[in-house]
Structure formats: structure tokens, C-alpha cells
Design a protein that fits this description.
about 90 residues; two-stranded antiparallel ribbon; 3 helices; about 75% helix; about 10% strand; elongated
């Protein structure tokens, strides 16, 4: 589920960038497929941090908050808005 959600999120952002590039959707999809193992690993790591934070691990809480802050900063810098589970960039 995470992998398909990540693919949808990335494809959505890439599709909006296609007007300014010579990249085809097929090329973008192939690049995303190459990234799937890393995307899934990162999401699993975030879930582990979140669960450890809930159990009271302050180090995990700080790590998780830093990751979320970096994501938020990236979204703001790239004119994105957060809507349900999809990141959409202008």
C-alpha cells in the first residue's frame, strides 16, 4: 500500500512538471520504479520512529519530528500543499 501511494504521490508531482521538460511519463514511471525500494524503506523507518515515539522514546520523537519538518520545508519551497495522503505541487 505504501509503495503504490508513494508512486501516486511522485507521479502526481512529476506529471505537473512535464510541461517544462522533455521527460515522458514512461521515463518518469521507470525512474519511480527504481526508487520504490528506497521509498518503502524510508516509510518503514518513519513508522518505526513514530511507534517508538508513542511508546515514550524521546530520541525517536525528535528524529521523527525532524523528518516531518524537512518534508514540510521542502513542500513549502516547492509550492506544495498537503491534501489527505497526496502531496500536490504547483
Amino acid at each position: 500500500m505504501f509503495a503504490s501511494s508513494a508512486k501516486a504521490d511522485i507521479l502526481d508531482g512529476l506529471q505537473q512538471e512535464l510541461n517544462n521538460t522533455n521527460v515522458t511519463i514512461g521515463e518518469a514511471e521507470r525512474e519511480i520504479e527504481k526508487l520504490q525500494p528506497e521509498i518503502q524503506k524510508q516509510r518503514q523507518y518513519e513508522v518505526q520512529l513514530y511507534n517508538a515515539c508513542i511508546r515514550g522514546n524521546q530520541y525517536a520523537c525528535k528524529k521523527y519530528q525532524n523528518i516531518q519538518r524537512k518534508k514540510q520545508n521542502w513542500m513549502e519551497q516547492n509550492n506544495c500543499r498537503y491534501r489527505t495522503s497526496l502531496n500536490r505541487c504547483k
